[in-house]
Design a protein that fits this description.
Layout: H1 2-7, H2 12-31, H3 35-52, H4 59-72, E1 84-89, H5 99-108, E2 112-117, H6 128-136, E3 140-144, H7 151-165, E4 169-173, H8 180-186, E5 192-196, E6 212-215, H9 218-227, E7 235-237, E8 259-264, H10 276-287, E9 291-296, H11 302-310, E10 317-321, H12 326-331, E11 335-337, H13 346-353, E12 358-361, E13 384-385, H14 388-400, H15 402-412, H16 419-431, H17 447-462, H18 464-473, H19 477-480, H20 482-492, H21 495-514
Parallel strand pairs: 1-2, 1-4, 2-3, 4-5, 5-6, 6-7, 8-9, 8-11, 9-10, 11-12, 12-13
Helix pairs in contact: 2-3, 3-18, 4-8, 5-6, 5-16, 7-8, 14-15, 18-20
């Protein structure tokens, strides 16, 4: 029954209720001076909001972060050293996000800088290129935060490290639920603070912990103005480029006579909206017997394996997993297919720098999916199709005509900002205030559609919210979030089995009442 099915899926009202309850618990812990628990609950609330995208910022949590900073940190007065920079990194993984681009820019400026990484799962083997670059540069200091420290200990440690270093500028390069640096930066109000907006289409905190916000495209500027309470004077526009150094090529399936269409990124970006992305794959595979699909990325492979099995595509669709030789993969494919319902950023750029043509589809009401927005020649190219017939027509030309395919790819090769241009432009906006978004083009964004997509993917595939709740609250989850406990049961067992059990219980309860 539909009522029983509703028991096993979160509605937006459920998510809002949970978010508000967790906020309330965080405030309660703060008032009891239990700052460790308060921070843990803010992290949990942030994760819930990030996974479901029903809001883009929360001023109550921003205020709470500042209050916690006031309690934990005794702010020092220090004389900032000119052209000295601190860069806090939540990632610390090669070829992921924008760590390497910013480090290379600081080095090109001949600046002293302090690199702080505080990833709880930081692995030096996954940051070999980052650490090699830093260790080669004698004006860089590396600080890897000890993960054995408590949250409050990390906050005090990081703050002291920064205060002793006495930088003039401070950068934040964050995941959307890393709260520790926000508390630190809330106390660094005497220096200029810059938050790099990595996820411009999702929730994050920090609007009161930085002075400027570095956006990479017009879309993010619009979201920040419309939903994050950030002024246009605080917005800095800085396009980025992909890092092309990677591990040695690991090879691909032998597909000599096929047109190889490659797609990838976080696998959740291809799930949702009634499996439309899988319909695009079926269209390409069904109409062209010489097409093979290669899919790279991490995440839930279940829906992809079922798709391959149900349509007998074992010899035409290949899951490559997470590839640390991703640039070489692009060198050996023919077409890049952009993910849907959420388009990838770095993947589209890697396609462009490798002169691989881009095949992209989205609905008109999702402007964040236009891959043109990730290219510096965005206004001069028309890549993303919003009409299925246009998508089919362009796909047909790319697949059938090798010369056309190569020519289309070459058009994109110069559509990415060059590293030296990135370094120069970033220096100008940070040290010379040479940027303005006052002439920003306004974009109409269907925020409600986005939240529906994220909630669908969360309910059907990811289940990150329920994992976060059980991780944070343990057995307390049973009485704090009873419906979430039902959802957890669905995740742990077969949904249909649970529904049948509950139907029997419901039927039996009715018989008892009648008797």
């Amino acid at each position: 029954s539909s009522d029983l099915n509703m028991m096993f899926n979160f509605s937006e009202n459920d998510i809002i209720s949970y978010f508000n309850k967790i906020k309330s618990l965080a405030n309660k812990q703060y008032k009891q001076a239990n700052y460790e628990a308060a921070i843990k609950y803010i992290e949990c609330a942030s994760m819930i909001a990030y996974q479901t995208n029903f809001i883009y910022n929360d001023q109550e949590l921003e205020s709470l972060i500042k209050k916690i900073a006031g309690k934990l940190i005794h702010a020092q007065i220090f004389s900032a050293v000119k052209r000295r920079i601190v860069f806090y990194d939540s990632s610390g993984v090669d070829n992921v996000a924008l760590t390497q681009q910013y480090i290379k820019a600081f080095i090109s400026w001949d600046c002293e800088f302090l690199y702080i990484v505080n990833n709880s799962v930081f692995n030096k083997s996954k940051a070999q290129n980052i650490l090699h670059t830093l260790n080669k540069y004698d004006k860089a200091e590396v600080c890897i935060v000890n993960n054995d420290l408590s949250r409050t200990e990390k906050i005090r440690f990081i703050y002291k490290k920064i205060a002793d270093f006495a930088p003039e500028k401070a950068f934040l390069h964050l995941t959307s639920f890393d709260i520790i640096p926000l508390i630190v930066y809330a106390a660094l109000y005497d220096i200029e603070r810059y938050q790099i907006n990595l996820t411009d289409d999702a929730f994050w905190l920090g609007t009161q912990c930085a002075d400027y916000f570095i956006e990479f495209r017009n879309y993010g500027c619009n979201v920040s103005l419309q939903k994050r309470f950030i002024t246009s004077e605080q917005l800095l526009l800085q396009p980025y480029y992909p890092i092309i150094h990677c591990k040695e090529f690991k090879g691909l399936p032998s597909l000599q006579d096929h047109v190889k269409i490659f797609t990838g990124g976080a696998l959740y970006k291809m799930l949702g909206d009634q499996n439309l992305f899988f319909d695009l794959l079926k269209l390409l595979l069904g109409n062209y017997s010489n097409v093979a699909i290669l899919i790279a990325g991490s995440g839930n492979q279940g829906p992809f394996l079922r798709f391959i099995r149900d349509h007998h595509y074992e010899d035409r669709v290949f899951l490559l997993g997470q590839r640390d030789d991703i640039v070489h993969v692009f060198e050996h494919v023919d077409i890049y297919l952009s993910s849907y319902p959420i388009a990838g950023g770095l993947m589209a750029q890697l396609a462009a720098v490798n002169a691989i043509p881009i095949l992209a589809f989205t609905k008109k009401n999702i402007p964040g999916n236009f891959v043109e927005s990730l290219l510096t020649c965005g206004s001069d190219v028309n890549l993303t199709k919003t009409d299925l017939s246009d998508f089919k027509y362009y796909a047909d030309k790319l697949i059938k005509d090798e010369n056309f395919r190569k020519a289309e790819g070459l058009k994109l090769k110069d559509c990415i900002i060059q590293p030296h241009e990135f370094n120069k432009h970033l220096y100008e906006i940070v040290f010379e205030n040479k940027t303005s978004v006052s002439n920003l083009k306004k974009i109409d964004i269907d925020y409600e559609y986005w939240s529906k997509i994220y909630l669908e993917v969360e309910n059907r595939f990811l289940h990150n919210c329920v994992y976060e709740l059980v991780s944070t609250f343990k057995f307390s989850m049973i009485y704090l979030f009873p419906k979430a406990t039902c959802v957890l049961l669905k995740v742990m067992t077969k949904k249909e089995t649970i529904i049948r059990i509950l139907q029997r219980i419901k039927k039996g309860y009715g018989l008892l009442r009648r008797n």
